[in-house]
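fyi for ur records
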Amino acid sequence: MSYSRDDIVAEARRWIGTPYHHQASLRGIGTDCLGLVRGVWRALHGTEAEAVPAYSRDWAEATGVETMLAAARRHLIERDRIAAEHGDILIFRYRADAIAKHVGILSGPLTMIHAIEGRAVAEVPFTPWWRRHTAAVFSFPGIRS
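which gave:
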């Protein structure tokens, strides 16, 4: 299957306004940050990349394992952070010494779409704070140029 970066951003924008709900991934019903990316993946690929086990809100602190980065490396294409383009997946660390545990989708040079606890999915500024906390950037496979 082939799709464009604009297709990725358009699908992510369809999720705007979806309420935050831990472990969910249902557009218009509820999602967390990972659920948003999973939902966009399903729209592009038809099925989940892999089964996602249940996870607690403090999964990263409890395990100390880079689970999110490892999963991204299994299914996405890692890119140089400087080369990030709209439609790319951004993975964040809240602190420099913390496990990466938040994800969003770059929607433009200065904006991203993400789900964060207590808020609905939104397109927000990709501020210097978010840029500093970006741990890795990935592209979906199958993007046509």
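Helices lie at 5-14, 33-45, 59-63, 67-75, 128-132. thats all i got for now
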